[in-house]
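TODO from last week: model Zinc finger FYVE domain-containing protein 1.
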Amino acid sequence: MSAHTQTAEKGQNTTLLCQESYVCSGTDEAIFECDECRSLQCQRCEEELHQPERLRNHERTRIKPGHVPYCDSCKGANGNIMHASMTGSRQIAAVRCQVCKINLCVECQKRTHAGGNRRKHPVTVYHAGKAQEQEEEEGMDEETKRRKMTEKVVSFLLVDETEEIQVRNEEDFIKKLDCSPDQHLKVVSIFGNTGDGKSHTLNHTFFYGREVFKTSPAQESCTVGVWAAYDPVRKVVVIDTEGLLGATVNLSQRTRLLLKVLAISDLVIYRTRADRLHNDLFKFLGDASEAYLKHFTKELKATTARCGLDVPLSTLGPGVIIFHETVYTKLLGSDHPSEVPEKLIQDRFRKLSCFPEAFSSIHYKGTRTYNPPTDFSGLRRAVEQQLENNTTRSPRQPGVIYKALKALSDRFSGEIPDDQMAHSSFFPDEYFTCSSVCLSCGCGCKKSMNHAKEGVPHESKSRCRYSHQYDNRVYTCKACYERGMEVSVVPKTSASTDSPWLGLAKYAWSGYVIECPNCGVVYRSRQYWFGNQDPVNTVVRTEIEHVWPGTDGFLKDNNNAAQRLLDGMNFMAQSVSELSLGPTKAVTSWLTDQIAPAYWRPNSQILSCNKCNTPFKDNDTKHHCRACGEGFCDGCSSKTRPVPERGWGPAPVRVCDNCYDNRGIQLDVAELPSDEEGGTLIARKVGEAVQNTLGAVVTAMDIPLGLVKDAARPAYWVPDHEILHCHNCRKEFSIKLSKHHCRACGQGFCDECSHDRRAVPSRGWDHPVRVCFNCNKKPGDL
């Protein structure tokens, strides 16, 4: 029914009303259906209408519960079928037009009320009862039943033009197919040049001409991406693809998408309307066969093992049917009745040096169209015959089909650079191999796409060349190599058997070392006063390796002596500070009480703020009000003013909020400070001045410490000024959030994301040092 049609009634019509409105005004229940009057009639209208002599012989039928009339447009006045070629039998009406006073099936409504003013006619919707539907089905022949099964089939977008799967998961795929999860299916797909009628071919071959897949007379391609639909008659998933040679963007990705569809298909139809078979057809199938065997066979085997599929995915490709439609030329093989067309096709493949070994079979089916429409009956029989053959490709559940497509999409995805596009082949290796290029020599990786997700390293068959910028040399122990082992070694500050401080002392005296896990220390840079030889000439071999984007590189400057010394000093300072925190607080409180004025409350008696009653913790600072002498927190005693009555003046000093507000405080003579208390007050002032001076000195020492830290930074560490946030949790660094370097990767992290400790021998850290979460998860030695 047209989307623009207005409905007068919605929902299921459990009671059919009189459509004549002759006597009853359309309010009585319908009892009879008159074929000549083309209406449902109540008891009173039926009697009145058929009283005239000429109307008494009208054929009337008493309707049953759930009855729906036939379409008036599908039959003539005598019930003759007018368009049997289109409908196959009398069709049940879907709606009744209230203006035209006729019953219409879905097809007739589209044909007569899809345009103009008729599409605005109000209609009444019919819903056939189960009893009538069952009765109608029993009276149908087999062909009509199969046609009826495909009436509700709709297509959906499976993969878009960017190779993104448009179904969320396996359940969504099965829901859109509208089939059972346990149903065993096969996959049929179609290929061909744009404009050759691929969607039209699928509609007539599988769905009796219904427009399941969209067709259009416009110049632009109406099929973008990959569309799918389920054929409930033949139990197959039908896939429509985008045409070749079309004016599209991302041509390389769309071409690669075709091979993914081919890989999950059991039968492929190559549709061509050329009067003579072009070389592009044979080139396409030959390149597809080569790419399938080279890249997809291994991946399909891995998918079977990885997903635990009960039904193994066949490593042999699908069967191919070449559907050739001509107008002015003869079909292939008609000039040579003794030779079958398939042999002529094999000869064409051989002449073009294209070998379609991946396909399980190749068949030719041709039709010559003298007058439209095209005859698809021969193609339909050939498809059904191939689907019945299960010797090579067996049916499988829809979940298996989805998992195979998902695995191929995850493996072979991503953009293809323009400089790597090869136009001499439909499916070049660049479409399916890793796009990484060595930074030193420029050669490409030969592994499959997205292999890094499985932990497989990059690989190239060509040798690399040395580049001073990347220093891509790798040292191996010469003694171990002569014994048949290849052991990598790196220059570092100290040996693994030396303690950190002993290693620093040895480094200062005899330089860096090269240590082999099997042979021990094999080289020291300043072992002798003079005459020290280069390690390349004596104890190590040099190999040149590729530098792939995103790797750590091959920096051999692992001399981290300065940073180790700085870490040691920071550790000692932190340890002394933490261990001495308690005694320092106790001594400070005792010393403050000794030089405090007599009216100050002793620190040992101050447990909470005198105003807000907040308890003091070990690290909290207690402040005395210079006016009243009570203890306060910093928030309740942040104001200042002179207190001359206590001897504090004329400079302003700390007072609590209460004393600041009560400026007119008067002290008794007994409360005035004595000469002894005046001396204590002077001592207190001197103590505060010394404390402030020492604080300024400590703050001033932090500035050159930052400069020393930057100078001591190992070469692979990211500079501090480039680290703005944590590399893991992305928190921004501030004065309260310190930066820490991972000793393995050199990135900057906060303390929470880098509190693990682990040895990093490859960077010269033989003892446990700070590493980040990601590096700590890596197996083996870092």
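Done. The longest strand covers residues 317-326.
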